[in-house]
Structure prediction request, 223 residues.
Amino acid sequence: MKSSPWHDVRLVFLKEMKSALRFRAAWAAMLMFALTTLACVSLAVQGGALSPRLLAALYWTVLFFASMAGIDRVFEAEDSSGTLLALRVYGSADAVLFGKLLYTFSLLLALAIPLTLAFLLLMDVTVAEPLLLLLLVLLGCFGLAAAGTLVAALGLGASVRGSLAPILLMPLMLPIFLPAIFVTAGAFGGEAASLSFLLGMGLYDAVLTVGASVLFPYLWYAD
Prediction:
């Protein structure tokens, strides 16, 4: 009996979670980069008051560059073990895309949660709207996961893959990060931003997901 698409996505996701143990040093590097950067910024500020918008910009900048330490390794397990061809033959493009997208989204959330707590503590930030901040983190991480999975597939076989990811991802993520900074500033107690920014982030996440589902098969099955 033919398996359902969701079943195939679930299998890819579970395979990725098991494979993550092999590359846990890379994922730990993401968290260490974020914490080290936050510690340096906190020491440089030395208790000085920063505006909510500047705090929001710092938060999303640290999250973006910390994710670069591991987001381009989405296909690292198959690439290093030589099983990319087997995955192309036995796994559909949609199952691979959405399974790895969910895995990357889970990974980014696992990074964002301790990063957010450390940021609030080290930068002495009081959150006026915690639920709004949580929604922003979910939308931002999902968009980054969708774009990151697509860029990781584009970088397969490239010798400069590690340098390629930030260059390609930054233009894709600007429509998410710019409104996220404005709304996060409001969540930090600054001037309240229009909630239409949240709607725009959600719509752009949907556009990224649909665009990735259209482009991914061409990248995945390319010679």
Notes: The chain has a mean pLDDT of 80. The chain has one domain: 5-220. The two ends are 30 Å apart (CA to CA).
